[in-house]
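Bench log, entry 3. Co-assembly request; chain sequences pasted below exactly as received.
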Amino acid sequence: MQTRTHPLLVAFSVLVFFFLLSPLVIIVGSALSDTSYLTFPPQGLTLHWFQNIFEISAFRRTMITSFTLAVGGTALSMLIGIPAAYALARYRVEVPRFMGNVFVLPILIPEIVLGFSLMKSLATGMGLPITLSLLVGHALLVLPYCVRVVGASLNNFDFSIEEAAVSLGCTRTKAFFVAVLPNIQAGIIAGFILAFITSLNDVSVSIFLTGPGVSTLPIQLLAHMEQFFDPTIASVSVLLMFVTVAVMAIVERTLGLTFLTK
Amino acid sequence: MTVSLTLDNVSAHYGSTKVLEDLSLHVGEGELVSLLGSSGCGKTTTLRLVAGFLQPTAGTIRLGERDLTRLPAHARNIGLVFQTYALFPHLSVRDNVAFGLKQRGVGRRERIRRADDMIARVGLEALADRHPANLSGGQRQRVALARALVIEPPLLMFDEPLSNLDAKLRVDMRVEIRRLQQANGTTAVYVTHDQEEAFSISDRVAIMNAGRIMQLDTPEVLYSKPANAFVADFVGFENMLKMRVVAEAGDAVRAEMEGGATIDLPKDRFAVPGRDFLLAARPEGLLVVEGAGAGIPARLGLRTYLGRAYQYQCDTPGGTVTANGPLSMPMEQGTPVSLVPQPDQCCLLPVEA
Ligand SMILES: Nc1ncnc2c1ncn2[C@@H]1O[C@H](COP(=O)(O)OP(=O)(O)OP(=O)(O)O)[C@@H](O)[C@H]1O
Ligand SMILES: [Mg+2]
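Structure output for the full assembly:
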């Protein structure tokens, strides 16, 4: 069968890809430039600026902070998100509808407002140490992804499977672990990855919560840019982009990206 | 070990809506009792109460000597077969069947042996390593059955186990369920809204309506001697004619129906002088005889062909009724006839308040 594509559709597609991809091309190009300032097209080719990320201790430190924060914050968020998603799906009839939306609020609130209010409540209000408020802040930031993606797989789950486990001798708690959890694994992994990426790339919440001595990679990037305008900025961006793409590729290979859009 | 199941004046609520009211039910040792009724009448709710997924707001539930009422669901040791099968998607057929044994602390080799035995009894030896997603509906149903049976529960409960199968398979599976239940002598409760299914495999059937049991009896009694108008209608007594006894003579009574026509009927406990009663008749229980005679006077209306008989809508003084006439003699619309009740296809019922 021959499918005919409208020429306008082709034109639009090309334009969309051009606008989406050209900034990326520019960033990658600038990161490779053998000049001490940001420029595009690159003049000469070098990997020096990538090496530079690991040589500047602030970048090294904040990179570790960012990854730890992304893993820790997401894990903490899952501890709340999985039970919440379970309760919302299991007691669909009993739980008021708006409860489902409560867990999406961190997405709906403008990020800068979220960041500011977290600073006011966690750091200034409760006087939590910087690392702890960062952890709590990030957990809250990614909670919607955890609840929504895990919830999506729970909505397709037949809860009589859980009752079957109970009728065969499991307590309610055990039934959750042996009958429910193994069947929503895919959703948990997908939610984890999405949350991880969100946390890793976050600026607006982190900028309010970081402080003396403790920063995240994107925040350090901003700080660096204020003083130096060298290709390190581009190389850090490429690194963040690369991690994101790599993680997405894993999701695509294992679960399929459609899983996230369901 | 066979035990009986007793529900004593059990009530259940969802929030503030009452779903079951003062329900009492006794299922004898090794007996299979079906709960039969239309959608929403409380069949599943009754099962969930016995299984322990729902707490009754009043009444007690006993299994043999044991009081189940406050016992948590996981400690009740009841085999359940769900409408959706509810197999564990992440486990193979063998592990699904062995699941209950594992919870009971049966060692690995022993539980695999017993699971494989049970899988063989439901005829799935070849599929023991498959996952549920790769099974047909009938095969899944067999796994669900094996999983419930292998723990040798004193009570088995089925919630519309066959409603997702096609007609032919339904008949095969219900025979299979009955065979396994009888072979083990397990007490069983079977929920369905298919009358034929319930009648064919049950020792007794409880016909339910709006959270109450309307009648609990053997299929034979339900079919021929329904106790009230609801059950009569449910088992196919389509025609209900309101009458009143006007005279009594020996073994017969003379009843007058609305509109003034009279008819002679055998004496019955509901046909008492001066009281209203209902004459319930299946379409084949009203014999269509041409001309005026001893039966209910009527005029033939629409005729339809059923294969085994012709069916007529007949206008009587008491309203329209449905009656069957012989194939040998099709009659025309408008013919005056009399409808003669056949005692074995009719019954008399009290008029409900
Ligand atoms: N979780 C619930 N919350 C509120 N009402 C419920 C709930 N489950 C059932 N009901 C109501 O209780 C009544 C009985 O339901 P039940 O599931 O026992 O019916 P059923 O006889 O099994 O029907 P079906 O043949 O459709 O399965 C229905 O009116 C139903 O709407
Ligand atoms: Mg039901």
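The mean pLDDT of chain A is 87. Residues 57-261 of chain A form a domain with the MetI-like fold fold (CATH 1.10.3720.10).
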